[in-house]
Every structure is written in C-alpha cells, then in structure tokens.
Fold this sequence. Notes:
alpha+beta; Jelly Rolls; two-stranded antiparallel sheet; globular; binds fe (ii) ion; EC 1.13.11.53; ARD; EC 1.13.11.54; nickel; iron ion binding
Amino acid sequence: MATLRRAGDPALVSDPATIAEVLAGLGVILETLPVPTDGQTLALLAAPELDDAEQARLLEGLDGVFQRLQTEKGYQERDLVVLYPGHPQLETLNTRFHRIHTHDDEEVRYIVDGEGVFGFVLPDDSQVELTVVAGDYIHVPSHVEHWFRLNQRQRIKAVRYFSARGGWTPLYTDRPLQEFAHP
Ligand SMILES: [Fe+2]
C-alpha cells in the first residue's frame, strides 16, 4: 500500500482516500493489483538480481496483468526494471530521474517487488513524495512534473508498460526539489 509525505512535513499519510485525492489533482492513477503468487513468480521475485532469461520468465508470469491492460488501455509493450544494491547503473539512474521532469508520453509502472518513490509537483506548487510498493500500479499522465528515486532499500522490480516507444525521455523543468524527510 502506497504512502505519501508532503515536503517539509515528516508525517506519513497512509489513508488511501487522502492519497487518491492528492493524486487526482494531477490526473495520476494509483491502483492495487495483487502480484501473482505462483511458485515460479515468487521465487523470481525473491531474488534481488535476475538474468535475461529469468526476467523473461517473470514477465511471462505477469502477463495476465499485461493482457488486461492491453485490452483496457491499449499498451503494446512492456519490459522489466530490476534494481538492487550494487547495481552498476544506480548512480546514473538516480542522477537522471531524481530531478523534476516531464515526459511527452505517460509513465506507467507496476511495482512487483521492493519499493520506489515518485515525487510530484502539485497545482499549488507544493511537492509530495509517494512511496510505492509491490502491488502498486501507477499511471503518470504526460506533461505532469514528477521525479523518481529509490529509497534506502535500493531495491525494486517494476514492469513498465508502453503505448509507444521513445516518448518518455526526461524533459527537465529546472524547478528545485523541496526538502523531504527521507525514509
Ligand atoms: Fe519520469
């Protein structure tokens, strides 16, 4: 279940209705999609690091979700992001995405293991951070100012869904990040 923090406020907001109301102001959709619990999927999710064949198997195990999203929302492709402590790209990815940016395309993620933090600029220019965990599905519309970072666990597995390739290069807005009580 996702949780939310406002900039400058250490209080953790866990009430789903409050979180949904904050996100609705941006058109961000957050849903809970239970992660499959078959033996193969559980074993793959338990491993911090997966090779290409294991990633392909995990995606196959999650394709029930993909098929429904294809029908309902028209997504055409999906891939898997697997990050873990010691991943060689952690610093590069953090530099790239822990800055306020937008995309020309929507950003759609289904978290299946670990945790990640999405940040958003609200209509009143205040900022919030949303911690997403396994079972959280998030849809960030195009042109919404946001950022992404890992938390202290530095571990996440997330499926990315695309309706088209290439539209989600980060476009930096150069707006400064506000101060958060980082977990
Ligand atoms: Fe992004």
